[in-house]
Amino acid sequence: MASYIAEQVGGDLYEIIPEVPYPEDYNETGDIAKAERDENNRPTIANLPDSIEQYDTIVVGYPIWWHTAP
Q: How far apart are CA 64 and CA 70, in angstroms?
C-alpha cells in the first residue's frame, strides 16, 4: 500500500526501523508488541532522517495489532 500511495502522489518512501530488531518468530514479536502496547513504550528508531523540512505532508502507515492503534 505504501508503494502505491507513493507512486500515486510522487512521494518518497521511508521505512521506520527500530534500533533493536524484532525477532523473526511471530509469537515472540507479538509478545514484545503486546508489552510495548501495555506499557505505552515505543522502540527507539535507528534510521531517523537528518531533517523532514522539505516535506509539506507526511503519511504514516502502520499495522493495527489487537484492534488498537499504537
A: 7
Cβ-based neighbours of 32, under 8 Å, separated by 6 or more: 22, 23
- Check if the beta carbon of residue 66 is closer than 8 Å to that of residue 34: yes
Give the span between the Cα atoms of 69 and 65, in whole angstroms.
7
Q: What is the pLDDT of residues 10-53, one digit of tens each?
A: 999 998 899 999 999 999 998 998 999 899 999 999 988 899 99
Angle at CA of residue 40, ends 18 and 66, nearest 5°: 85
* Predicted model pTM: 0.65
User: What Rg, from alpha-carbon coordinates, does the chain have?
Assistant: 14
